[in-house]
Amino acid sequence: MTEEREVLTYEQFGTAIRELAQEIIDDYQPDCVLSIARGGLLIGGALGYALGIKNVSVMNVEFYTDIGEHLEEPMMIPPTPKAVDLTGMRILVADDVADTGKTLELVRDFLGDHVEEVRTAVIYQKPNSTFQPDYKWRETEKWINFPWSSLPPVVPSN
């Protein structure tokens, strides 16, 4: 039995980033894009280019362990950015999807009072997410096949 999935192509990804960037810049001028790795790496980098922001940083958070399987709570994985380095900045947190919303909530709470303002952007939001991102491209209930994670990892050929 095959479960129906949301399929994002690289071409659609380019469109999604431009549309999301336009929505963001019309409303907010971030100083830094903070990508949540791994899912948000490409989103944060692409938004950085689209918004003309060179200050792009990464925070590693583990939550999903496999398709439909995740830890009880998201967990930060070192190294984490020092909140003091972000003091007074307007931060845009970028991720691929707000599924439960727990990862975005963890990162927003980590930044806390250290930054001037935190806003969040995702390509997809699930309807049952407990966290509402400030910016989203689309909403879906389906499992999402992103073009960079649809195939299994490359392994040695020998």
Mind explaining what this structure looks like?
It is a single chain. The chain has helices at about 10-25, 40-50, 100-110, and strands at about 5, 30-35, 55-65, 70-75, 90-100, 115-125, 135-140, 145. It is of the alpha/beta class. The chain has a single domain (about 5-65, about 70-145), classed as 3-Layer(aba) Sandwich (Rossmann fold). The strands form two sheets. The chain has a six-stranded mixed sheet, with helices on both faces. Strands 1-8 form a two-stranded parallel sheet. The mean pLDDT is about 90. This is Phosphoribosyltransferase domain-containing protein.
Question: Could you outline the blueprint of secondary structure elements for this entry?
Answer:
Elements: E1 5-7, H1 10-25, E2 32-37, H2 41-51, E3 56-66, E4 69-77, E5 90-98, H3 102-111, E6 117-125, E7 135-139, E8 143-145
Parallel strand pairs: 1-8, 2-3, 2-5, 5-6, 6-7
Antiparallel strand pairs: 3-4
Question: What are its keywords?
Answer:
158 residues, alpha/beta, Rossmann fold, six-stranded mixed β-sheet, 3 helices, 8 strands, globular, PRTase-like, glycosyltransferase activity
